[in-house]
Amino acid sequence: MKNRLKELRNQKKLTQEDLADIIGVSRQTINAIEKEKFDPSLPTAFKMAELFNLKIEDIFFHTDK
């Protein structure tokens, strides 16, 4: 699944560790999501959407490729 997480995190001047602490996951989880090696759980995706004041589909999106 593609995502805009790194872009959004950088806009808020958050490190991966900062974001991880805010939403209650590990820094490694944030790294894996950003590298598109791991899809977040639904509760994690909702927390990210709330933090960035966006809908989940504005952060994460599916491509056919």
Structure notes:
With 65 residues, this protein is mostly helical. It has helices spanning 5-11, 16-23, 27-34, 42-52, 56-59, and strands at 2-3, 60-61. It has a two-stranded antiparallel sheet. Helix 2 crosses helix 3 (27-34).
Topology summary:
Layout: E1 2-3, H1 5-11, H2 16-23, H3 27-34, H4 42-52, H5 56-59, E2 60-61
Antiparallel strand pairs: 1-2
In short:
This protein starts with a strand and ends with a strand.
Helix-strand pattern, N to C?
A: EHHHHHE
Largest sheet: 2 strands, antiparallel
Please indicate the percent range of residues in DSSP E strands (runs of 2 or more). Answer: 5-15%
How many helix segments?
5
Q: What's the β-strand tally?
A: 2
Broad shape: globular
- Uncertain stretches of 5 or more adjacent residues: none
How many whole angstroms does the radius of gyration measure?
Answer: 11 Å
Helix content: 55-70%
| Helix/strand structural class | mainly alpha
Strand neighbour order, sheet with most strands: 1-2
The N- and C-terminal alpha carbons lie at a distance of 10 Å
Mean pLDDT: 96
